[in-house]
Design goal:
Helix content of chain B: over 70%
Strand content of chain B: under 5%
Radius of gyration of chain A: 19 Å
Oligomer: heterodimer
CATH superfamily of chain A: Ferritin, core subunit, four-helix bundle
Strand content of chain A: under 5%
Distance between the termini of chain A: 40 Å
CATH class of chain A: Mainly Alpha
Number of domains of chain B: 1
Number of strands of chain A: 0
Structural class of chain B: mainly alpha
Order of helices and strands of chain A: HHHHH
Largest sheet of chain B: none
Chain lengths: 199, 169
């Protein structure tokens, strides 16, 4: 038998650990993806959002007389799945890295969905409002990554094919989101690499 | 175009390995759940879909002159990831298990979005069509898990706050 509030605090700590992980992941990725500047910029912007989220979660924990978990039990709190995702997210290969970022964002979406329901159950309106905001920020980022993925994949494939044909580096200029020979179609639509709209 | 085709094949094999992991995870999760019959039923439905998806991917690989088993050992990262997430699944706690399902479904969604874009680039309309069909199933499952998550969370909290009730599974 456990009081809902105990779970709320425990899940809040998980969320805080997750955002710390997210911070490291976004920092690494934003640096690595310099050949895809719009994606890197979006990740950079989300990094700033993540820092603010971490602070909100800390305030929430303080209000509940709890503290965030120490950095060293990150692995324990998040489990191997999140660890593997974060490792994959800092891979050099941009497609896999973006897929992992997307899955990580969706893990955050799931976390805040759970926390929102738990805060509702515990009758904590202040927390509920905060989780609603965080949920919307994560959904916006996940949605943007998802919409950008086809353009990124095709840019990556075009770059790879061009590199193999020893084409001049000019055609591989950063920001060339669309390959020259991409056939038109829904998945090849021109994806604006400008990041999720701020709320 | 050879490189594009090579990537397409690799990603198809990754997807096939991922669906095999999905099958294992869904099977073990369905067998563990006792008190959340709606969740169990949806997982069992998706287990059937997952087996169908494996056959569809095998069809694509054969058509492209390859097979699922061809490059078993090059999948390092995806395999590690799948195992990591299935570790989350193995938790006998329904809330964490549902979150893990959602993350895994989204990993699958990302894979099929990637495959569709690659198939389109390679001009392989049949692979594109198959992946679009699978993507729709994965999206439906992910949405269902997310929509059901508040209810699962609250049911878990109520059960866990009640004397003599099993909440975790």
């Amino acid at each position: 038998m456990t009081h809902p509030r105990v779970h709320l605090v425990e899940w809040l700590r998980d969320a805080h650990a997750m955002e710390q992980h997210s911070e490291q992941m976004l920092r690494g990725q934003a640096k690595r993806l310099e050949r895809y500047p719009k994606l890197a910029q979006a990740l950079q912007r989300h990094l700033e959002q993540t820092l603010a989220q971490k602070e909100l979660l800390e305030q929430c924990l303080q209000r509940m007389d709890a503290s965030p978990s120490a950095l060293k039990d990150l692995a324990g709190r998040l489990g191997a799945g999140a660890q593997a995702l974060a490792t994959m997210a800092v891979e050099d290969e941009p497609v896999k890295a973006t897929m992992a970022c997307l899955a990580f964002e969706q893990m955050e979406v799931a976390t805040y969905t759970v926390l929102f329901a738990a805060a509702h159950q515990a009758g904590d309106i202040q927390c509920q409002r905060m989780f609603d905001r965080l949920l919307q920020e994560e959904q916006a980022m996940a949605g943007w990554l998802r919409d950008s993925l086809p353009g990124l994949v095709q840019a990556y494939l075009a770059r790879d094919a061009a590199a193999d044909r020893s084409v001049t580096t000019q055609s591989m200029a950063p920001g060339a989101a669309q390959p020259p020979q991409a056939p038109p179609g829904p998945a090849a639509k021109d994806v604006p690499f400008d990041g999720p709209r701020p709320r | 175009m050879t490189e594009t085709r090579e990537h397409l094949l690799n990603w198809l094999r990754d997807a096939h390995a991922m669906e095999q992991q999905a099958e294992q995870m869904l099977k073990s999760q369905a067998s563990r759940i006792d008190n959340y019959p709606k969740v169990k039923a949806r997982i069992e439905q998706h287990l059937e879909e997952t087996r169908g998806q494996q056959r569809l991917l095998e069809g694509c690989l054969e058509r492209l002159g390859s097979s699922p088993s061809a490059v078993k050992d090059t999948m390092g990262m995806m395999t590690a990831l799948g195992q990591g997430i299935s570790g989350m699944f193995a938790s006998d706690e329904i809330v964490k298990g549902s979150m893990a399902s959602y993350v895994f479904e989204n990993m699958e969604i990302a894979s099929y979005v990637t495959l569709i874009a690659a198939a389109q680039q390679a001009g392989d309309t049949e692979t594109q069509r198959v992946c679009e069909q699978i993507l729709a199933q994965e999206e439906a499952m992910a949405q269902w898990v997310l929509d059901n998550l508040p209810e699962v969370t609250q049911a878990f909290l109520v059960r866990d706050a009640t004397e003599g009730m099993e909440a975790k599974k």
